[in-house]
């Protein structure tokens, strides 16, 4: 049964995001289907990356994303669904945290993508422990389980002092390698067992996950006679049909023959015992990890991040200071003031043009200069002619000028400014050359 938990936390500028979980209660190790959906009334102009979702008390596996469309309140939305499996590791309650998703989507009627951050609401999953009557050390939730075993040599000619390897392979669908319980190797009279390091692996496709665990034990036969290797039983729970299943290996009876040469038995046993102790140490010394890293690695990267962040912050401050200074200089520059003059001309506002001209002339020359003096000294005949025409129209005839007059004014004023700046540049160059040719000599 699908339990749909939707949070319309993203209804902002026609964006919707929500989380769906199925089911909302599960056993330890039982996969919970998690779907993160993001929708818009237009389209997404760049890819959406939800990333790896970290859930305390659970392992999360990402599968795939699929495009989708839905109607909300009678309106069609386009979107993307992201599929995950969440595997609880502890009994109690676990929470799917608030997800902050970065998207780019244009407004309706527009095409340019706008960056948005939309959030989902947290969701809670109730995690049940192992049911009463079942061994927590032999608990596995899976869709299927296959068990196979093999021996390193035939068991028809076993002698005292022989070491034979027994390998059991388990393959399960719908689970992760981390959830396989380790095999409990029974004690057998006359036989010492020495487990080796297990080999585990998780296999993931776009729609499913499976895992394998390969365990090998060394049997050292120390006494002659008939010895029975008991069967090993594995239990798993199929959450799809809510049934328990059992898989087991066959028990085997072996006739161990005597061996006159037992000189190497003690040495073999010592070597196997050392390997067993190393395996047990590895199991007991499971490293404490922070975000998949050891504490040493985590704090090393944390220091790098903090130092990098400090450096970037200082660079940002300096760049911001430079930008503010450049912006201030730009706003106070002669070029910016002249832009205001040309803007007034383009708006065909003669009065605003005269105000802008006066402000511009204050930036153009250190010594105050009137507009009439500027036109008289640096202006072309065309500029003088169009200004006479416009002055007469505005102040004598009280009428407006045609578009061609403003165009001519814009063109001729730009040319006159260029002429002025060129003369100033030449004058400065001559002054520098004169100083070089006629230096002032002081005692």
Entry summary:
By secondary structure, the protein is an alpha+beta fold. Helices cover 33% and strands 32% of the residues.
Instruction: Using the coordinates shown, work out and report the CATH topology of the largest domain.
Output: Immunoglobulin-like
Instruction: State Rg.
Output: 42 Å
Tell me the structural class.
alpha+beta
What are the low-pLDDT stretches, counting only 5+ consecutive residues below 50? 1-12
CATH architecture of the largest domain: Sandwich
Q: Count up the domains.
A: 3
What overall geometry do the principal axes of the alpha carbons give? Answer: elongated
Our count of helices gives: 7
**What separation lies between the terminal Cα atoms?**
103 Å
Number of strands: 19
| Average pLDDT taken over every residue | 83
Can you write the helix and strand succession as a string? Answer: EEEEEEEEEEEEEEEEEEEHHHHHHH
Mind explaining what this structure looks like?
The chain is an alpha+beta fold. It folds into three domains: 15-128, Immunoglobulin-like (Sandwich); 136-284, Immunoglobulin-like; 334-426, no CATH class. The protein is built from seven helices and 19 strands. The protein has helices spanning 265-284, 295-331, 334-346, 350-364, 371-378, 381-396, 403-437; strands at residues 15-22, 25-27, 32-40, 58-72, 75-88, 92-96, 100-105, 114-119, 123-128, 144-151, 158-159, 163-173, 191-195, 199-204, 209-221, 225-229, 233-238, 243-248, 252-257. Strands 10, 12, 13, 14 and 15 form a five-stranded antiparallel sheet that branches. A four-stranded antiparallel sheet has the order 1-3-5-4, with no helix packed on it. Helix 6 packs across helix 7 (403-437). It is elongated, with a radius of gyration of 42 Å. The relative contact order is 0.07. Mean pLDDT is 83; it is low at 1-12.
